[in-house]
Amino acid sequence: GDRGSREGLIVVHEWWGLTDHIETRGQRLSDAGFLVIVPDMYRGSVAKNFEEAGHLMDGLDWTGACMDINGAAKYLKSLGCGKVGVTGYCMGGALALAAGVLCDEVSAVSSYYGIPKATVCDLSKIKVPAQGHWATKDEIKGFSSPEDYGPLEGKLKAVGVTVDWHVYEANHAFVNDTGPLHKTHYNAEAAKKSEERLVAFMHQYLK
Questions:
Q1: What is the CA radius of gyration of the chain?
Q2: What is the pLDDT at residue 4?
Q3: Are 201 and 164 in contact (CB under 8 A)?
Q4: Helix, strand or coil for residue 178?
Q5: What distance in Å separates the CA atoms of residue 144 and residue 66, rounded to the nearest whole number?
Q6: What are φ and ψ of residue 191, in 5° steps?
Q7: Other C-beta atoms within 10 Å of 120: how many?
Q8: What is the C-alpha separation between 33 and 206, in angstroms, rounded?
Q9: Can you give the pTM of this predicted structure?
């Protein structure tokens, strides 16, 4: 096709690392018409349990990770993408929002249940349309609970960017059908609905 006709999408993994679950999400989004990159923020490490996952996430250089995302966006543009979006889950969702502030190659972001710390970036400086997928039963305070995503919606709307917030009757990590929490947290209906909304949002703002 014409140069700049493809829409690029970067899919950022959870705190577990680059698992089969995230590879599958990337493939599904590729099937939905995007040119997809799934970067490995941990350079090959995959957590086996909560302790390892916490250790890997705590050790992540978030600014460096955003530079990696910006580099991936530049690469997608070199392959013929006109605009590039970022989505991610849990830690990856927080990185997606951070990319909306720190990555000048990114045109739209969608976070699944993740908000970056104020030390990573000032979200009131976001310049691109932002979508969020949140869970009513999410208890991770300071990261993805209702007390966090509720006020954030108002903060982003005050900046004047497009905000597309969706809340599901579900738990944190409701899209993950394979991880350690999937028996209690996976919600097929919320996963399907949120993916449809993600695809529609990205097609709208990347075309």
A1: 15
A2: 62
A3: yes
A4: coil
A5: 19
A6: -60, -45
A7: 18
A8: 12
A9: 0.97
* Maximum Cα–Cα distance across the chain: 47
Match 């916490």 to its residue by tokens: 54
On the 0-12 / 13-18 / 19+ scale of CB atoms within 10 A, 110 is buried
3-state secondary structure at position 191: helix
Query: Among 93, 19, 36, 105, which residue's Cα sits nearest to residue 68?
Result: 105
Q: Which residues 6+ apart lie within 8 Å of 175 measured at CB?
A: 25, 89, 112, 133, 186, 190, 191, 194, 195
Residues (pLDDT < 70) of the chain are: 1-4
Can you say how many angstroms the Cα of residue 3 is from the centroid of all Cα atoms in its chain?
Answer: 26
Residue 202 class from Cβ within 10 Å (0-12 exposed, 13-18 middle, 19+ buried)?
A: buried
Could you tell me if 115 and 91 are in contact, meaning their C-beta atoms sit under 8 angstroms apart?
Answer: no
- Whole-Å CA distances, 127 to 26, 160, 195, 205: 25, 9, 23, 13
